[in-house]
Amino acid sequence: MKDAMTPAPLNLRQLLRNATQQLHAVGIEAPQREARLLMAHAARTDLAGLLRIDTLSEAAQARFAEMLARRLRYEPMAYITGQAGFWSLDLAVSPATLIPRADTETLVEAVLDHLPDRNIPLRVLDIGTGTGCLLLAILAEYPRAFGIGTDLNPQAAALASFNATHNGLAARSTMLCCNWADGVEGPFDLVLSNPPYIPHADLATLMPDVVAHEPARALDGGPDGLIAYRALARVMPDLLAPGGLGVLELGIGQNHSVPALMRAAGLDIVEIRPDLGGIGRALVVKK
Protein backbone atom coordinates (compact mmCIF):
# COMPACT_ATOMS: atom_id res chain seq x y z
CA MET A 1 0.00 0.00 0.00
CA LYS A 2 1.34 3.44 -0.97
CA ASP A 3 2.11 5.98 1.70
CA ALA A 4 -0.72 8.53 1.92
CA MET A 5 1.89 11.29 1.49
CA THR A 6 3.29 9.87 -1.79
CA PRO A 7 2.33 12.30 -4.60
CA ALA A 8 0.21 10.98 -7.43
CA PRO A 9 2.04 10.34 -10.71
CA LEU A 10 2.19 13.45 -12.83
CA ASN A 11 0.08 13.43 -15.99
CA LEU A 12 2.04 14.19 -19.16
CA ARG A 13 -0.83 16.09 -20.75
CA GLN A 14 -1.07 18.52 -17.87
CA LEU A 15 2.71 18.97 -17.79
CA LEU A 16 2.72 19.66 -21.51
CA ARG A 17 -0.17 22.14 -21.24
CA ASN A 18 1.58 24.03 -18.45
CA ALA A 19 4.90 24.10 -20.29
CA THR A 20 3.27 25.17 -23.55
CA GLN A 21 1.55 28.08 -21.80
CA GLN A 22 4.81 29.22 -20.20
CA LEU A 23 6.74 29.02 -23.48
CA HIS A 24 3.98 30.89 -25.31
CA ALA A 25 4.00 33.61 -22.64
CA VAL A 26 7.66 34.43 -23.28
CA GLY A 27 7.24 34.46 -27.06
CA ILE A 28 8.75 31.10 -28.03
CA GLU A 29 7.60 30.06 -31.50
CA ALA A 30 5.81 26.70 -31.79
CA PRO A 31 5.59 26.37 -27.99
CA GLN A 32 3.67 23.09 -28.05
CA ARG A 33 6.24 21.37 -30.23
CA GLU A 34 9.09 22.73 -28.11
CA ALA A 35 7.41 21.51 -24.94
CA ARG A 36 7.08 18.04 -26.46
CA LEU A 37 10.71 18.02 -27.61
CA LEU A 38 11.90 19.00 -24.15
CA MET A 39 9.76 16.34 -22.52
CA ALA A 40 10.91 13.64 -24.94
CA HIS A 41 14.51 14.49 -24.18
CA ALA A 42 13.84 14.51 -20.43
CA ALA A 43 12.13 11.12 -20.72
CA ARG A 44 15.04 9.84 -22.86
CA THR A 45 12.82 8.91 -25.74
CA ASP A 46 11.67 10.49 -29.01
CA LEU A 47 8.38 12.13 -29.99
CA ALA A 48 6.91 8.80 -31.04
CA GLY A 49 7.99 7.20 -27.77
CA LEU A 50 6.37 10.01 -25.84
CA LEU A 51 2.98 8.84 -27.11
CA ARG A 52 3.44 5.51 -25.34
CA ILE A 53 3.91 6.87 -21.81
CA ASP A 54 1.50 8.64 -19.47
CA THR A 55 3.68 9.72 -16.55
CA LEU A 56 7.23 10.84 -15.87
CA SER A 57 9.50 9.43 -13.20
CA GLU A 58 10.66 11.84 -10.53
CA ALA A 59 14.11 11.98 -12.18
CA ALA A 60 12.59 12.72 -15.60
CA GLN A 61 10.29 15.32 -14.04
CA ALA A 62 13.32 17.07 -12.52
CA ARG A 63 15.16 16.99 -15.86
CA PHE A 64 12.12 18.41 -17.63
CA ALA A 65 11.72 21.24 -15.10
CA GLU A 66 15.40 22.19 -15.41
CA MET A 67 15.34 22.09 -19.21
CA LEU A 68 12.12 24.11 -19.36
CA ALA A 69 13.61 26.78 -17.09
CA ARG A 70 16.60 27.08 -19.44
CA ARG A 71 14.36 27.41 -22.50
CA LEU A 72 12.27 30.07 -20.76
CA ARG A 73 15.54 32.05 -20.48
CA TYR A 74 15.81 31.74 -24.29
CA GLU A 75 18.66 29.25 -24.25
CA PRO A 76 18.54 27.52 -27.66
CA MET A 77 16.98 24.08 -27.75
CA ALA A 78 20.11 22.59 -29.33
CA TYR A 79 22.28 23.73 -26.42
CA ILE A 80 19.80 22.28 -23.94
CA THR A 81 19.70 18.88 -25.64
CA GLY A 82 23.33 19.05 -26.78
CA GLN A 83 22.52 17.93 -30.29
CA ALA A 84 21.30 19.13 -33.67
CA GLY A 85 20.60 17.60 -37.05
CA PHE A 86 22.28 18.84 -40.22
CA TRP A 87 21.92 17.25 -43.66
CA SER A 88 22.14 13.50 -42.90
CA LEU A 89 24.19 13.95 -39.73
CA ASP A 90 23.54 13.91 -36.00
CA LEU A 91 25.86 16.48 -34.44
CA ALA A 92 26.88 17.39 -30.93
CA VAL A 93 26.68 21.13 -30.27
CA SER A 94 27.90 23.40 -27.51
CA PRO A 95 28.03 27.14 -26.76
CA ALA A 96 31.50 27.13 -28.35
CA THR A 97 29.89 26.87 -31.80
CA LEU A 98 27.00 28.22 -33.80
CA ILE A 99 24.04 25.89 -34.06
CA PRO A 100 23.85 24.39 -37.58
CA ARG A 101 20.94 25.82 -39.54
CA ALA A 102 18.89 24.59 -42.45
CA ASP A 103 19.88 27.64 -44.53
CA THR A 104 23.49 26.42 -44.49
CA GLU A 105 22.43 23.20 -46.21
CA THR A 106 22.09 25.38 -49.33
CA LEU A 107 25.90 25.26 -49.57
CA VAL A 108 25.88 21.46 -49.56
CA GLU A 109 23.23 21.43 -52.30
CA ALA A 110 25.34 23.80 -54.41
CA VAL A 111 28.42 21.57 -54.08
CA LEU A 112 26.45 18.47 -55.08
CA ASP A 113 25.11 20.20 -58.19
CA HIS A 114 28.46 21.60 -59.31
CA LEU A 115 30.42 18.42 -58.53
CA PRO A 116 27.98 15.67 -59.56
CA ASP A 117 30.53 12.82 -59.59
CA ARG A 118 30.35 11.46 -56.04
CA ASN A 119 33.42 9.25 -56.55
CA ILE A 120 35.97 12.00 -57.19
CA PRO A 121 38.79 12.15 -54.61
CA LEU A 122 38.13 15.70 -53.45
CA ARG A 123 40.51 17.53 -51.15
CA VAL A 124 38.31 19.82 -49.05
CA LEU A 125 39.02 22.71 -46.67
CA ASP A 126 36.37 24.16 -44.35
CA ILE A 127 37.46 27.47 -42.82
CA GLY A 128 35.76 28.22 -39.51
CA THR A 129 34.33 24.74 -39.26
CA GLY A 130 32.43 25.11 -35.94
CA THR A 131 30.61 21.82 -35.38
CA GLY A 132 32.16 20.50 -38.59
CA CYS A 133 28.70 20.40 -40.19
CA LEU A 134 29.68 21.57 -43.68
CA LEU A 135 32.84 19.53 -44.01
CA LEU A 136 31.28 16.36 -42.60
CA ALA A 137 28.19 16.66 -44.80
CA ILE A 138 30.44 16.83 -47.87
CA LEU A 139 32.56 13.88 -46.73
CA ALA A 140 29.39 11.87 -46.15
CA GLU A 141 28.36 12.50 -49.76
CA TYR A 142 31.79 11.95 -51.36
CA PRO A 143 33.22 8.66 -50.02
CA ARG A 144 36.68 9.25 -51.55
CA ALA A 145 37.04 12.81 -50.26
CA PHE A 146 39.40 13.97 -47.50
CA GLY A 147 38.93 17.21 -45.59
CA ILE A 148 40.50 19.63 -43.16
CA GLY A 149 38.42 21.83 -40.87
CA THR A 150 39.91 24.86 -39.13
CA ASP A 151 38.61 26.90 -36.23
CA LEU A 152 40.14 29.58 -34.04
CA ASN A 153 38.36 28.19 -30.97
CA PRO A 154 40.05 25.03 -29.61
CA GLN A 155 36.74 23.89 -28.08
CA ALA A 156 35.07 24.11 -31.48
CA ALA A 157 37.88 22.17 -33.16
CA ALA A 158 37.59 19.47 -30.49
CA LEU A 159 33.81 19.31 -30.94
CA ALA A 160 34.21 18.98 -34.72
CA SER A 161 36.65 16.09 -34.14
CA PHE A 162 34.11 14.41 -31.88
CA ASN A 163 31.41 14.82 -34.54
CA ALA A 164 33.69 13.33 -37.18
CA THR A 165 34.22 10.27 -34.99
CA HIS A 166 30.54 10.02 -34.05
CA ASN A 167 29.55 10.02 -37.74
CA GLY A 168 32.24 7.59 -38.85
CA LEU A 169 34.25 10.20 -40.75
CA ALA A 170 37.34 10.62 -38.54
CA ALA A 171 39.57 8.61 -40.89
CA ARG A 172 38.96 11.09 -43.70
CA SER A 173 39.12 14.35 -41.75
CA THR A 174 41.45 16.45 -39.63
CA MET A 175 40.35 19.33 -37.43
CA LEU A 176 42.89 22.06 -36.68
CA CYS A 177 42.85 24.98 -34.27
CA CYS A 178 44.26 27.94 -36.19
CA ASN A 179 43.41 31.40 -37.52
CA TRP A 180 41.65 31.02 -40.87
CA ALA A 181 44.01 28.74 -42.82
CA ASP A 182 47.32 29.60 -41.17
CA GLY A 183 49.74 26.75 -41.71
CA VAL A 184 47.39 24.86 -44.04
CA GLU A 185 48.91 23.94 -47.39
CA GLY A 186 46.82 23.64 -50.53
CA PRO A 187 45.79 23.20 -53.12
CA PHE A 188 42.21 22.17 -52.43
CA ASP A 189 39.51 21.19 -54.89
CA LEU A 190 36.86 22.71 -52.66
CA VAL A 191 37.04 25.46 -50.03
CA LEU A 192 33.99 26.02 -47.81
CA SER A 193 33.22 28.68 -45.24
CA ASN A 194 30.30 29.98 -43.23
CA PRO A 195 32.08 33.04 -41.80
CA PRO A 196 30.88 35.71 -39.36
CA TYR A 197 28.87 38.10 -41.53
CA ILE A 198 26.44 40.10 -39.37
CA PRO A 199 27.29 43.82 -39.12
CA HIS A 200 28.27 44.64 -35.57
CA ALA A 201 25.44 47.14 -35.06
CA ASP A 202 22.87 44.52 -36.07
CA LEU A 203 23.86 42.00 -33.41
CA ALA A 204 21.57 43.58 -30.82
CA THR A 205 18.57 43.09 -33.12
CA LEU A 206 18.95 39.31 -33.33
CA MET A 207 16.58 36.92 -31.59
CA PRO A 208 17.33 36.61 -27.85
CA ASP A 209 18.16 32.92 -28.38
CA VAL A 210 21.02 33.98 -30.64
CA VAL A 211 22.38 37.19 -29.18
CA ALA A 212 22.43 35.99 -25.57
CA HIS A 213 23.74 32.47 -26.13
CA GLU A 214 25.53 31.83 -29.45
CA PRO A 215 29.21 32.86 -29.70
CA ALA A 216 29.55 36.49 -30.80
CA ARG A 217 32.90 35.76 -32.46
CA ALA A 218 31.13 33.45 -34.91
CA LEU A 219 28.48 36.09 -35.71
CA ASP A 220 30.21 39.49 -35.70
CA GLY A 221 31.35 40.49 -39.18
CA GLY A 222 32.65 43.90 -38.10
CA PRO A 223 31.26 47.34 -38.96
CA ASP A 224 30.07 46.34 -42.45
CA GLY A 225 29.81 42.58 -42.03
CA LEU A 226 32.64 42.00 -44.52
CA ILE A 227 35.80 41.59 -42.42
CA ALA A 228 35.80 37.80 -42.75
CA TYR A 229 35.16 37.93 -46.50
CA ARG A 230 38.13 40.24 -47.01
CA ALA A 231 40.30 37.73 -45.17
CA LEU A 232 38.91 34.89 -47.27
CA ALA A 233 39.50 36.83 -50.49
CA ARG A 234 43.17 37.16 -49.53
CA VAL A 235 43.75 33.45 -48.96
CA MET A 236 41.37 31.59 -51.27
CA PRO A 237 43.24 32.16 -54.57
CA ASP A 238 46.31 30.44 -53.13
CA LEU A 239 44.32 27.67 -51.45
CA LEU A 240 42.28 26.65 -54.48
CA ALA A 241 43.58 24.31 -57.16
CA PRO A 242 43.09 25.44 -60.78
CA GLY A 243 39.41 24.89 -61.50
CA GLY A 244 38.70 24.50 -57.79
CA LEU A 245 35.47 25.74 -56.25
CA GLY A 246 34.88 28.00 -53.26
CA VAL A 247 31.45 27.96 -51.64
CA LEU A 248 30.70 30.66 -49.06
CA GLU A 249 27.61 31.43 -47.03
CA LEU A 250 26.19 34.94 -47.46
CA GLY A 251 24.11 37.10 -45.18
CA ILE A 252 21.10 39.17 -46.17
CA GLY A 253 22.01 41.96 -48.59
CA GLN A 254 25.52 40.66 -49.39
CA ASN A 255 24.76 39.50 -52.95
CA HIS A 256 26.83 42.31 -54.47
CA SER A 257 29.48 43.24 -51.93
CA VAL A 258 30.95 39.77 -51.39
CA PRO A 259 31.07 38.79 -55.09
CA ALA A 260 32.85 42.09 -55.76
CA LEU A 261 35.53 41.15 -53.21
CA MET A 262 35.99 37.75 -54.80
CA ARG A 263 36.20 39.16 -58.33
CA ALA A 264 38.84 41.62 -57.17
CA ALA A 265 40.80 38.64 -55.83
CA GLY A 266 40.77 37.05 -59.29
CA LEU A 267 38.00 34.50 -58.74
CA ASP A 268 35.11 33.92 -61.13
CA ILE A 269 31.53 34.08 -59.85
CA VAL A 270 29.70 30.89 -60.79
CA GLU A 271 26.41 31.19 -58.92
CA ILE A 272 24.57 32.83 -56.05
CA ARG A 273 22.12 30.20 -54.86
CA PRO A 274 19.05 31.23 -52.83
CA ASP A 275 17.88 29.38 -49.75
CA LEU A 276 14.28 28.24 -49.29
CA GLY A 277 13.35 31.77 -48.19
CA GLY A 278 14.64 33.24 -51.47
CA ILE A 279 17.69 34.88 -49.85
CA GLY A 280 20.97 34.59 -51.76
CA ARG A 281 22.76 32.19 -49.40
CA ALA A 282 25.51 30.25 -51.21
CA LEU A 283 28.12 32.06 -53.27
CA VAL A 284 29.98 29.70 -55.60
CA VAL A 285 33.30 30.95 -57.00
CA LYS A 286 35.90 29.27 -59.20
CA LYS A 287 39.61 29.65 -59.76
TrEMBL record:
Residues 14-82 form the Release factor glutamine methyltransferase N-terminal domain. GO terms for molecular function: nucleic acid binding; peptide chain release factor N(5)-glutamine methyltransferase activity. Its EC number is 2.1.1.297. InterPro entries: DNA_methylase_N6_adenine_CS, HemK-like, N5-glutamine_MTase, PrmC_N, RF_methyltr_PrmC, SAM-dependent_MTases_sf, Small_mtfrase_dom. It catalyses: L-glutaminyl-[peptide chain release factor] + S-adenosyl-L-methionine = N(5)-methyl-L-glutaminyl-[peptide chain release factor] + S-adenosyl-L-homocysteine + H(+). S-adenosyl-L-methionine binds at G128, T129, G130, T131, G132, D151, W180, N194. Pfam families: MTS, PrmC_N. Residues 110-204 form the Methyltransferase small domain. The keyword Transferase applies. Gene3D superfamilies: DNA helicase RuvA subunit, C-terminal domain (1.10.8.10), Vaccinia Virus protein VP39 (3.40.50.150). GO terms for biological process: methylation. Keywords: Methyltransferase, S-adenosyl-L-methionine, Transferase. Substrate binds at N194, P195, P196, Y197. It is an enzyme of class 2 (transferase). SUPFAM superfamilies: S-adenosyl-L-methionine-dependent methyltransferases (SSF53335). Methylates the class 1 translation termination release factors RF1/PrfA and RF2/PrfB on the glutamine residue of the universally conserved GGQ motif. Belongs to the protein N5-glutamine methyltransferase family. PrmC subfamily. NCBIfam families: hemK_fam (TIGR00536), RF_mod_PrmC (TIGR03534). This is Release factor glutamine methyltransferase.
